[in-house]
Every structure is written in structure tokens, then in C-alpha cells.
Hints:
By secondary structure, this protein is mainly β. It is built from 1 helix and 14 strands; from the N terminus they run E-E-E-E-E-E-E-E-E-E-E-E-E-H-E. A 10-stranded mixed beta sheet has the order 1-2-3-4-6-8-9-11-13-14, with no helix packed on it. It is globular and about 55 Å long. It starts with a strand and ends in a 6-residue tail after the last strand.
Amino acid sequence: xxxxxxxxxxxxxxxxxxxxxxxxxxxxxxxxxxxxxxxxxxxxxxxxxxxxxxxxxxxxxxxxxxxxxxxxxxxxxxxxxxxxxxxxxxxxxxxxxxxxxxxxxxxxxxxxxxxxxxxxxxxxxxxxxxxxxxxxxxxxxxxxxxxxxxxxxxxxxxxxxxxxxxxxxxxxxxxxxxxxxxxxxxxxxxxxxxxxxxxxxxxxxxxxxxxxxxxxxxxxx
Length: 221
């Protein structure tokens, strides 16, 4: 293919018109598949071979649905860029069983090193459920989607989260406890260009005002 491989750590397949992910060397640290015609992405092919990728760029493709529950073969992935696709469903957690307790035998190992998840300019209408399973997650960018509200469980167990970008969505409601227990939020909560009308203190009731930048301009109040 027209992909460029440096022979050791970096694979660049951007602007190559590919529609499927080519084989990736297990030594690759960075893989760029941006600006192509990729419609599907499956992390594991069942062979349980671990990739050494730290940075994966799938931005500006044609992906509409994506499940990360099979991504047990990316143990050191730190950044995942999904910007500019058509994603309306991003699955992180497993379905709750009809009987018995919920088990996370697979998802306990879900992208354990992931620090940055970027899903900007897609078609999400809710925050993906199960973000708390990404135990190292520090940054979530979900601007320019169609998210309508923030529920109390959306950021549950996201104990390492520092930066949330929800700019330019359709958010009209934020539960007062939506950001509860996010003690490490210290960079930005960006809620510009939404449809908020609720009183400001309800949104910020549990945030650390002294370390945090909160952007709320261009809302409906």
C-alpha cells in the first residue's frame, strides 16, 4: 500500500484511501490511519497478540459504530483519536446479564494505559457508558456531537479525569452530581455552545473552584 513505515516504530497511512486496517507490526508505537475510508475497526482478531501502540489515530474516516470491549491487545495505548467520523454508538461496557452480578472479567483489562480519548465531531447523543472502566483516563474530548444531557453515572469512577470538553453539543440538563468525586479535575470543563438554562451553582456544586477553569459562554440562559 502507500503507507509509510519507518521500519521500527511509526506507521503512517493517512490520505491513502484505504478502507480496512492493514497489518500492524508489533513494534509500532504510533499508527496514523486518518483521512481514509475505514468503516469498521476491531481491536482484537482473536489471536491475543499484543500491539505495542501508544498512539492510534483513526480520525476523519467513516466509522459509525465502535466497540472497545475487545481491546485487550492494546495494553500500553495512551491516546485514541476518533475525531471526525460518524460515530453514534461507542461501546465500552458489557451488557448487564439478566441474572447474577455484573462481571468485568474482560473489561477489567480494557485499555489500562489510555489517557486521552477524543471523539469530537461525531454523532453521539449520550456520553458513552463505561468511561470509568478506563482506569488511567485523564482527558475526554467530545465536542461537536449531539449530546443532550449529562447523567450522574456518565463520569462515575473516572477518578483520574482532569479535562472534559463538551463544547458545542445540545446539552440542556446536567445532573447536580454529574461531576461528583472527580477530585482531579484541574484543567478545563468546557460546556460552551450548549443549551444550558439551569442555575450555575447546580453544575459546579462539587467542583474544586480553585484549580479549575470552567467555560460556559454561549448557552441559553
